[in-house]
Amino acid sequence: MSDPKHPEQLTDRLFATERNPEDFRFDASVARVFPDMIRRSVPGYTTVIPMIEVITEQYVQPGTNCYDLGCSLGAATLAMRHGIAHADCQLIGVDNSSAMIERCEHYVALDDHPLPVTLRCEDILTTELSNASVTTLNYTLQFVPPAQRLGLLERVAGATRPGGALILSEKIRFESEQEQDTQTRLHHEFKRANGYSDLEISQKRAAIEQVLIPETLETHRQRLLKAGFDQALLWYQCFNFVSILAIKAE
Question: Number of folded domains in the chain?
Fold first, then answer.
């Protein structure tokens, strides 16, 4: 019998056999294999997570709230937790998948850090945001309908204190068709190098293309500035995945 405090981590084989086409959902089957799935699917993920701790440490302010919006199993949440040195801060993780939140609770409980974490099973488009110094959207905005992205970022910027920051990690697309083709090919080679078959790559792409809508880096930058941030700096890129640091001026 497995230890209930240690969530079962399985190898991602969700798309290894022929299946009927359907949109990708963050349900219990995905939650069970999510750590393996994201490590093998997102180039640079294992670099971005520890750097979230570093960035959080630089921008967190005493007596403020820190948010991980779309927290899934809490990797970014825990990175933020270890970057917060102020005991009077509140750390809040939000995800609309009850399966993700349930498993996230286990990982939070296993993490050896005294700062409490509040987990909300809520829609990030409507969850309450206030008095924020650091917010993370780690590969989350890409799943929000494009027409609703500016409104969400306006809410985040409006809740962010002067000197605070947003860490936004995303899959992007490119203006140049040639660059798009090259970066997509390299991403697929990354997946093959991590053991995914051509069938898995093809079926995952078909399932996710209607729910994960990537945009260009410039679109993200301009939207962040329009939303109310004063700087939008690219701090990391690996193939077609990037992370941006958006900062509110002091």
Answer: 1
12 is in an annotated binding site: no
Residue 28 lies in a domain: no
Distances from the Cα of 173 to the Cα of 44, 103, 205, 245, angstroms? 16, 31, 14, 18
Which residues in 122-202 belong to E strands, given as ranges?
Answer: 132-138, 160-171
Q: Does residue 19 have a known ligand-binding role?
A: no
222: CATH:
3.40.50.150
Strand (E) or helix (H) holding 117: strand 117-121
45 is in an annotated binding site: yes
Q: What is the pLDDT of residue 31?
A: 59
Give pLDDT tens digits for 186-203: 999 999 898 877 677 666
Tens digits of per-residue pLDDT, 16-48?
Answer: 444 455 554 555 666 566 677 788 889 999 999
| Under 8 Å between Cβ of 208 and 87 | no
Residue with tokens 């993200």: 220
